[in-house]
Amino acid sequence: MTSAYSIPTLETDRLILRGPRQSDLDSYVAYKRSERAKFTGGPIDREKASLHFTALTGLWTLRGYGLFMATLKTNPNDVIGGFGIIHQLFNQEEPEFGWTVYDPTFEGKGYVTEAMRTIIPWAWDVMGVDTAQSHIDDGNEPSVAVARALGATFDEKQTAIANGPGGEFDNDGPLVNIYRHHKGALQ
Amino acid sequence: MTLPTTITTERLTLRPFEMRDLEGYVTYYTGDRTGGVGGPKPRYLAVKQFMAMSGQWVLRAYGRYAIDLSGTAIGHTGVMHYDDTDPIELTWTLWDAAHEGCGYASEAARAVLNAWSGPSLAVHIMPNNTRSARVAQRLGYTHDDTVAGPHYAPDMMTFRQGAM
């Protein structure tokens, strides 16, 4: 079987970053059903989460980039989170660097920053643009710290536009702050 | 359980979805024709479904194809299987009434059935969708009225391969 897409496997000191697999679904669903998903449009039920996971995976086939699933090198079977690029085909002009630790056991250990420091340099050429956003719900301070560690800065103007009338986040949800990444800003 | 990435039939090519197919699918999914499958639905859901049809190929070695007629997608067919708890289904849809009545759906879905190696595929059809029911019969499927529809659409009729 020839393949219409290819997903690389990237490696950091402690992590393997690879394409999504069906066996990752349970980790994703457990996260999306939990209260921790309140910063990413949740909690939602299994059926919705399952469709969402499959749809996110379609970014790889349709755009050629997407969300990596991260496992520890010491335990390659269990996914600890999804890190990479989110660029929906609806209502999202610019690509977004996104990261979510699915299992709270693995928070606060620097895994997100470690993964994104490897993914971001890889991403620029593949995306073919020199800037990207990160969307962070108001109050999600740990993610703000990650964005800043990755060299992103708060984009006040785009945040106002996106949360304003007719904007990407003009809905019942919380204020979404946009952090701006530029190619070369990550040292 | 696998399917080839591309299948060629007498008049059609079944191929992976591409970005250029999105608008045709969204027009179908947000329009009146999705009455047969629970629609019409809002645009964001249409886009999500389109992405999921494409993404399933990464997660499983099978999925649904764009039905390509002379370089343009006119519908989709193939094997739908998102959650492991879902039935493994054969589906077919033409996006525009202009392409009905030419046998395209039967030709495309039959090619998928011939290429499929795996457990038998369920078919679910809304009771008022007589055109689709005829396609199912042409493919050798029979309505099994002893079985309810899938959990996400209990009103749908279940068809099984072979005579009852």
Summarize the structure.
Chain A has 187 residues and is an alpha+beta fold.
Number of distinct beta strands of chain B: 8
* Shape assignment of chain B: globular
Number of helices of chain B: 4
Which runs of chain A of at least 5 residues are low in confidence (pLDDT < 50)? none
> How much of the residues of chain B is beta strand, in percent?
15-25%
Assign a percent range to the helix content of chain A.
25-40%
Whole-number mean pLDDT of chain B: 93
Provide the CATH topology of chain A. Aminopeptidase
Verbal overview:
The complex is a heterodimer of chains A (187) and B (164). In chain A, 32% of the residues lie in helices and 25% in strands. Chain A has a single domain (10-182), classed as 3-Layer(aba) Sandwich (Aminopeptidase). Chain A has a five-stranded antiparallel β-sheet, with helices on both faces. Chain A has helices spanning 25-32, 46-62, 111-127, 141-149, 156-163, and strands at residues 10-11, 15-18, 67-72, 75-86, 96-101, 131-137, 153-154, 176-182. With 187 residues, chain A is of the alpha+beta class. Chain A is globular and about 45 Å long. The mean pLDDT of chain A is 93. In chain A, a hairpin with a 3-residue loop joins strand 1 and strand 2 (15-18). Chain A has five helices and eight strands, in the order E-E-H-H-E-E-E-H-E-H-E-H-E. By secondary structure, chain B is an alpha+beta fold. Chain B has a domain at 7-117: Gcn5-related N-acetyltransferase (GNAT) (Aminopeptidase), CATH 3.40.630. Chain B has four helices and eight strands, in the order E-E-H-H-E-E-E-H-E-H-E-E. Chain B has a five-stranded antiparallel β-sheet, with helices on both faces. In chain B, strand 3 (64-69) and strand 4 (72-80) form a beta hairpin. The two termini of chain B are 25 Å apart. Classes of the chains: A alpha+beta (187), B alpha+beta (164). The interface between A and B is medium-sized, with 30 and 30 residues.
